[in-house]
Amino acid sequence: MKDDQMGILPSQQINQLFEDGAPSTPIHHADGQVQPASLDLRLGTKAYRVRASFMPGPDVPVQEKLERFKLHEFDLTNGAVFETGCVYIVPLLEELALPEDVAASANPKSSTGRLDIFSRVMANGAQEFDKVPAGYKGPLYLEVSPRTFPIVARTGSRLSQIRFRKGNAVLDSTALQDLHVAETLAAGGQPLISNGALSLSIDLQGDENNLVGYRGKRHTAVVDVDKPGAYSVHDYWEPIYRRGPAEIVLDPDQFYILVSAEAVHVPPLHAAEMVPYDPLVGEFRVHYAGFFDPGFGHSAAGGTGSRAVLEVRSHEVPFILEHGQIVGSLIYEHMLERPESLYGADLKSNYQAQGLKLSKHFVAD
Length: 365
Description:
Layout: E1 7-8, H1 11-20, E2 23-24, E3 39-42, E4 46-50, H2 62-69, E5 70-75, E6 80-82, E7 87-97, E8 103-108, H3 110-114, E9 117-123, E10 131-132, E11 137-146, E12 151-153, E13 158-166, H4 173-183, E14 186-187, E15 192-194, E16 197-201, E17 211-216, E18 223-224, E19 231-232, H5 233-236, E20 237-241, E21 247-250, E22 256-264, E23 270-275, E24 284-286, E25 291-292, E26 306-314, E27 319-322, E28 326-334, E29 362-363
Parallel strand pairs: 12-18, 19-29
Antiparallel strand pairs: 1-13, 2-7, 3-13, 4-5, 4-7, 6-12, 7-11, 8-10, 8-13, 9-11, 14-22, 15-16, 16-28, 17-20, 17-22, 21-27, 22-26, 23-25, 23-28, 24-26
């Protein structure tokens, strides 16, 4: 049974954190920055290009390592280009002064993952990316490395999001199975619950036109992360169609957008997260923008189940994915309270009731 004092903080409690000064910022938080179970993090006023990614390490400020490894710094107030294959560190506008019983974890936003922007949050003294210990007080930094498309970003751009939690409220396999029976967490496909996670499989049958996914083109123009609906799909993506068996060969170092066979549902009193998939089962990696908010795929919030869009890369060798193959897992956590607004109709969310869908920046010709 859940301890009522453990769980993910909902939007109203995140707003209270702001009032208490736990996230602080020199610029007032923006409309839509607080999501049902997370807070969008915003880029600050400058960025550093660095020689390589690094971990701060115990008791070491990120800024100290930046001074050692930076190549140059540049201003973001009017926007700047982040080139593919380069690593950048950006101090974020938000700083934290967390209560002693509140920890946090971060993840790329959905659109960030679908643009193949490798991003992760660092805190002073961190020994893990995207993890902030309970009671942390200090600045946050975002590592940014575009992999497929060069991007334009600026002060206030939102590439990552952070969740705040008290204790450990992850559902075990028994509780998850009970919730699935009651709420149908995954419809269609072959949902499997084990080790406290709901496994998801890949859909390679395709839609009515046999479209199964997209492969990112190389050497494209830039994508401005703050301009939705501004770019033609065909200038940036190659559609992939099924023309025989329901399978796809992943070429090394290519980026694919594919979709789960299951339609995912996150009930209003829960939040979900895609977790790293075991690399021992295949030579591929699914790069997750991993947070699923309360109300995702929920019928009362305009859902009826939403497919999980998967950002996929092969490793060093070509690898064949077949329809129905398991490619990812979802864990579910309790919310401390039901959020005031749910993902979907309440917030006009971009990816509610989705199938195979590229990021909001692209439109069909």
